[in-house]
C-alpha cells in the first residue's frame, strides 16, 4: 500500500513539474518612445543601464526588431493581438475624445493566457480606449493600475503650469490614474508624474509576490520616456546627460526590482522576460527625447528610427546567454510565440505574427519572419521589407531632418507633409537609409512590389486607394 501511495505521489509530482515547465511566467516590459540607442547595451553614452544590460548578457538581444507601427495606440494594439493594427481598425494615438478602442471580438495576449490559468495584471499605460468597455479588465486582465492614454494628454503646458485658453492642451481633461475600472486619483503636476515609474514598479512587485504559486502574465507598459518626462528624487541629477538619462536610470532600477523579486520568490528560472519599446524617439523634443541609435528619423515615420527598437528576451535555462540576434522580428510575433511556449490556443481571427521561439532559443540559422509591412496613418502602406531589402513608397510624412529640435520639454518643429520619394535601401549595408539603389536592383524592386500587392489586397492601402479584403473594425461606443 505504501509503495502504491509513493508511486501515485511521484506521478503527481512529475505532472506538477511538467506543468510548471510548460507554463512559464511571462513579464512584458513595454517602453514608450524609447529609442534604439537609449540603453548602454545598445550604445547609450554618459549613463549606464546595468540591470537591462544584465538581461541582455543572460539572454538574446535583438538588433533587427520592429515595432508594428511608429505610434502609441497602433503599436500597443499590435503587441497585444499579434495583428498589424490596421487589420483591427486601430490607427494613430487614441485621444481622450475618441469613441473607439480595441474590439471585444479580438483576443488579447491576456485573454489567450487566461485560458491556460494565468493570473494577469497590467501596471502602466493602456491607450486602447478609455471607455469602460475598452479598459483592461474587459480584455483579459485581472487587475490594472495606470493611465488610460498618453501622459501628455492633460491640461498642462510644457513648463508644467496649467494651460491657458490659447494653448491646445487646455482642451484636455484632467489626467486620470485608473485602478481596475475606476478613477483612483488625478495626475495634475509634473511632481505627480514623477511618481509613476515607482508606482508601476511597486504594483508589479506586489503582483509577482501575490501570484508566485501559479503562472502569471505581467504587462508593464511604462508611461515614459514619452514626454513630459519626470523622475523621482531617487534619480534626479544622477546622470551626466540630464533629465532624460536620469529617467532611463530609473527605468533600469525598475527592471532591477522586478528581477530581484523573481529571484527572491524562486521564479528566476521559470520566467520569460521581454523588454522592448512601442516605437522610436520623439526627436523634436531634443534633450527630452531619446536616440535612434544612428537610424534615420524617429517616432511617427516608417524609417528605421521610427520602428526599429531595442528588444531583449531572457528566459534562464532556455535562452542562451549573450546572444545577439540579427534576424528580422517584430512585436506582432510576441503573441504567437507565447502561444507556442505555453500551449495556448491561437486566436480564431486571422493574425499576422509568426512564432520566433527558435530565435529565442538561439537558433540563428532560422528566419521565421521573411517580410514586414510598414503601415502608418490610417492605412497607408509606406514601405515593405524582404530580408535586408526595404522599398519605401512615395508618400507625404513627418520628418525631423534639418529641423531645430526643442529643448527642456518644449517641442521643435516636425513637419508632417514632407514628400518622401520612392527608394530602395539595402539595410545590410545602409541601415541609416541614405543611398537609394533602385537602379542597381530592378529584380529586387519587382519582388518587393509583389509583396506590397499582397499587402494591399489583404489589408488595403490609402496611398493607392485600395480596400483590404481582411480588415476588421475597432470597437465603438455610441
From TrEMBL:
Organism, scientific name: Emticicia oligotrophica (strain DSM 17448 / CIP 109782 / MTCC 6937 / GPTSA100-15)
Ranges where the record places region Disordered: 457-478
SUPFAM superfamilies: Alkaline phosphatase-like
Keywords for the protein's UniProt record, in alphabetical order: Hydrolase
InterPro entries: Alkaline_phosphatase_core_sf, Sulfatase, Sulfatase_N
Gene3D superfamilies: 3.30.1120.10, Alkaline Phosphatase, subunit A
Name listed for the protein in its UniProt record: Sulfatase
Top-level taxon: Bacteria
Family as reported in the entry's similarity comment: Belongs to the sulfatase family.
Domain (Sulfatase N-terminal) ranges: 24-343
